[in-house]
Amino acid sequence: MRDATYYVATSLDGRIAAPDGDWSAFPVEGDHMATIVGEYTDTLPGHVQSALGLTADCSMFDTVLMGWSTYTPALDVGIDSPYPHLRQVVASSRDRTVPDDVELTADPLGRLRELKQEDGTGIWVAGGGTLAGAVIDEIDHLVLKINPVVLGAGIPVLGSTTYAARDFRRTRLRSFESGVVIAEYSRAGG
């Protein structure tokens, strides 16, 4: 059985984006970027890897599960397969048209449970917050890139879904001069 990791950027007040989905307040320059690019290469979109001269080896993740709102920004700029190096699964409650290398699911929790039973490396739960809240029972690890900004309003890191409390234990904490903190957690008892 493989693990699912919710790897996401967040503000100090627990928002993954502004109310309109904009995340441009998060710093994309600074000493934290070497860790993101070096360790989390699998999470970089294909066009970003190409621009940086990188190639993901899928050693950390070979599958990405994302919500429709997370997938849409790529579509808006003409990219219908943002993570061509990964198996891409997009959750949507509506029937939509996606390319052949992108899978659509109306049951993200059930699909994540199935994916975890398959062989492979990890599964990256990319967001958004509503999706993460809906699949919280199957998330084994949290990797939060905590940015030194307060958004005040926006999309909560685990959406507005109601769920029972879950215990996670901190496994690693890294602070950077940029003010970004990468905090890693694993499900307690797991």
Automatic annotation (TrEMBL):
Signal peptide: none
Domain of life: Bacteria
A family per Pfam: RibD_C
Record-annotated Bacterial bifunctional deaminase-reductase C-terminal domain positions: 7-181
This protein's name: Dihydrofolate reductase family protein
Species of the source: Pedococcus aerophilus
